[in-house]
Design goal:
This protein has 433 residues and is of the alpha/beta class. 31% of the residues lie in helices and 25% in strands. It folds into two domains: 1-326, ANL, N-terminal domain (Rossmann fold, 3-Layer(aba) Sandwich); 331-432, ANL, C-terminal domain (GMP Synthetase, Chain A, domain 3, 2-Layer Sandwich). The protein contains eleven helices and 21 strands. It has a nine-stranded mixed beta sheet with strand order 4-3-5-6-7-8-9-14-13. A four-stranded antiparallel beta sheet has the order 10-11-12-15. The longest helix is centred in the N-terminal third of the chain and has 22 residues, at 12-33. The chain is globular and about 70 Å long. The termini are far apart. 45% of the residues are buried. It binds 5'-O-[hydroxy(phenylacetyl)phosphoryl]adenosine. 5'-O-[hydroxy(phenylacetyl)phosphoryl]adenosine is lined by residues 90, 133, 138-140, 143, 210-213, 232-237, 241-242, 300, 302, 323, 326. Keywords: Ligase, Nucleotide-binding. Pfam families: AMP-binding, AMP-binding_C_2. It catalyses: 2-phenylacetate + ATP + CoA = phenylacetyl-CoA + AMP + diphosphate. Its EC number is 6.2.1.30.
Length: 433
Amino acid sequence: MILHNDVETLPREDLEALQLKRLQATVERCYHTVGFYRDAMDDLGVGPQHIKSLADVRLLPYTKKEHLRENYPFGLFAVPTEQVVRVHASSGTTGKPTVVGYTRRDIRTWAKLVARCLAASGLCPGDRLHNAYGYGLFTGGLGLHYGGEELGVMVTPMSGGQTQKQIMLLQDFAPTAISCTPSYALNLAEEAESMGVDIRKLPLRVGIHGAEPWTEEMRYEIESRLGIDAVDIYGLSEVIGPGVGNECIEAKNGLHIWEDHFLVECVDIDSGKPLPYGEEGEIVFTSLTKEAFPIIRYRTRDISVLDPAPCKCGRTHVRMRRITGRSDDMLIIRGVNVFPSQVESVLMQTETLSPFYQIEVFREGSLDTMVVNVEGSPPLMEQPEEARERVAQKVVRDIKDFIGVSARVVIKGVGEVPRSQGKAVRVIDHRKK
Ligand code: DLL
């Protein structure tokens, strides 16, 4: 195991003592410097003096995305803007983006956390990282960039897009690692194939993929097409950006949350009631070390399970299982809850299909209809219509069996489903128009 910092294997008792000290300091600071937190705590009759144990975090109010919007752009900053050296923003589907800020120290903390993620993914100083996360307001590009430099790897700031040029640089710069969304990794693999480049023969060894939900099946697909180990990285701009947690390459089984910087909880999506370890719910974070934009009990809307079981890598930080999806991406089709990742899982188990898909939802009369558009593999597309129809019918049955919902499956020709340049658009919900 390559540890970036000894704190990763700290005994739980010591880790929790560190967390408590930092939680108390964070609550104290939020109360005294951010009007929103003071008002929200006063409303609940709770103050910094009530935080005596880690469990007392549950006394604190939740922060939600709408609170960030209501305080646009800088209303939740805990330092004067003169001390803020960077802002990022995440675009909502509607209205104003949500804005987050970083002090000089926050930028250093963030870089160290991403360096930790890269080390957990198996990178060492001297490695070369091709960074294809988008640069700009999105935290992916600059987040991975600073983390790579912090670890001492040679970073190519490629950003997203220009896929053919990316393939050229992958050959010429000989990176040992690539960072991009899982959907873009497949786009790259496809482009390389069409250019006659065998990407598996390049020195590329590891992929650090996140920023969108993906499945275990997708991992196998990426690993076999690119000839790499594909590792999951997690984060969100409201909490810091990428670098909140990462899988270790030893287990590739859930993301270690860097608990010395983030206190993580799992709560019931509807009631907000805290859930015990092992139960699925919404993940909630409290930052423990951030200066410019500390955040208390942020409701991520990401659905997962926290697993405290010891990991074979030796890290003591709790693992969060792969994200199933966001609560707001969950489709309700004729009363059945469906996550796009469940559909992905079924599609990827069908050998004659390509990993490019998009789900459309319509309302026909009073009924919701889910249409799964998925590309056939090139060999399937050479077969007669009936062969494709048989595959479509099998997928319809599998979706019914595994997810419990009736869907229409349309097999598309190669290139007919839009390719991702960053975060893939998995669902088009025509009901919302
Ligand atoms: O996506 C930060 C990031 C950049 C993470 C690069 C990893 C790599 P946002 O744009 O604010 O930030 O989007 C955050 O993306 O709440 C999740 O819903 C989703 N997400 C991020 N990582 C994962 C992951 C970045 N590994 C939102 N698996 C989060 C599933 C993820 N979903």
